[in-house]
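[Archive record]
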Amino acid sequence: MYIPFEEMPAQARVWIYQADRSLSPEDMATLQAKSKAFLEQWAAHQQALKASSAVFYERFLVIALDESFNAASGCSIDASVHFVKSLEQQLHLNFFDRTKVAFFNQEDKTVFTEDLKNLKQKIAEGIIRADTLVFNPLINDLGTLQKEWQKPAQSSWLARYFS
């Protein structure tokens, strides 16, 4: 069953899908409508799941699940991955490219990505600075997403490049 994202509890499990490009208003509307329809019928072992989704920064699809209501199963998680893969096909984008790191440009309030193999060079060039905000795609719960999703590069796993 779908519930509004802002009603999800802090302990809700989250999956963060990072698009390989900025999403247009049409893309975001499609993501929101299709996600709501999928989550309305999402279930684990024929038991409804209490879930929601949101699009952030014209780049990220976040699916949240209140496992205090019903927990996800392997099959239900597989179904959600297949759903996101179908969105990729429909919108001609990639949500599963783990070779890109997302950063927040504080000047123009946009998200940009850099390839993992180019990070040291971009830091040396000053494109990524110690205070550049980096997104952590490995967050597992909504409370952590709200507090720690973005942090300065020097306070993240990239700290070793700023010594």
Summary: DSSP finds four helices and nine strands in the chain.
